[in-house]
Amino acid sequence: MAWGFDQQTDRWWWRHAYSGPVSRKKTGIKFAVHRLNTTALEVPSARLSSSQASFSTGDCDNGNPFETNPSKVKIFDRHLKRKQRDRAAWLLHSNSNSNDSFIDAVAENLLDRLEDCKKTFPTALCLGGSLHAVRRLLRDRGAIEKLIMMDTSYDMVKLCKSSQPDSSNENIETSYVVGDEEFLPIKESSVDLVISCLGLHWTNDLPGAMIQCKLALKPDGLFLAAILGGETLKELRIACTVAQMEREGGISPRVSPLAQVRDAGNLLTRAGFALPGVDVDEYVVKYKSALDLIEHLRTMGETNALLQRSNILTRESALATAAIYDSLFAAEDGTIPATFQVMYMTGWREHPSQQKAKCRGSATISFQDIQKQFGSES
């Protein structure tokens, strides 16, 4: 599912089942266009070939894999998340002179993995999240020649397009697409690299989104992703829970559920990636107050988007949350810490040249012999 914007009618359209990008000449931004699920608009039916259609992991109707329904798993409100991304683009535009040190640290750490690869990646796809930071910090890593920037938010894509690129990235041919990670408008086996920096944890079907990323990769293509882990904002969770129990007599979800570290490797294996790798970093960001933390989350587009969220937060609960946060976690200098757990995932699409594990029982030396050898030397 995704939103598409028509500049002639100045309207947003809700759409299903992508069937390829269409160029908008005025802005240079492409929109993933698909069959419209509405009675107000009519479009000619088009026959989709396997080389032109995009793919999805949703259920199929009448055995047609290109006529898909949205994922049955409904955790996040994707429509609300797109609005939050629009607001984040406006906030980033108003603070264009200052960069987010936390976002830059995550993007830099993720892109550093390209320097560890001797392989080049001529065509790369960058999914929604920290698009602006990835584009600015790429610095010719990976020998990328063609870069596709995609986000669900038109305003975020427009902001990324209007920003000045780094001098080392001026020779990269960059395209901009408005699309959804849950239904990638990308041909199968068409890109060499997929990058997602702090974006995939908002998808309703994370395994399905990762499977689509793998299908979009060419053989021996690389998947790099950074998502927030389950220990993220643990201080805010505690403060919200205590405040709501005191003021309202019950709790409602205020912080989104996130994957645990033990799940990251299983996600890569389930998606079919070869040579999976996962590592975790924890960043502690200090703020002057809880209100500054909330404002930072808004700027990142990381505020609550749960379908089962409570739409009302009373003034008493909000003030109590800030007071409890300060009393429980405030440092000696008066600042409050916020923990962000970031999980970095690496996976490759299968290729015969990749190293593979030996068959069980094929070893010629046992660990007992090694232990005896080193034990005798000591």
From TrEMBL:
Residue stretches making up the Methyltransferase type domain: 132-224
GO biological process, one term: methylation
Presence of keyword Methyltransferase: yes
Upper classification of the organism: Eukaryota, Viridiplantae, Streptophyta, Embryophyta, Tracheophyta
InterPro entries xrefs: Malonyl-ACP_OMT (IPR050602), Methyltransf_11 (IPR013216), SAM-dependent_MTases_sf (IPR029063)
One Pfam family cited in the UniProt record for this chain: Methyltransf_11
Keywords assigned by UniProt, alphabetized: Methyltransferase, Transferase
Record flagged with keyword Methyltransferase: yes
Domain of life of the organism encoding this protein: Eukaryota
GO function term, MF aspect, one: S-adenosylmethionine-dependent methyltransferase activity
GO cellular component, as recorded: mitochondrion
Protein name per Swiss-Prot or TrEMBL: Methyltransferase type 11
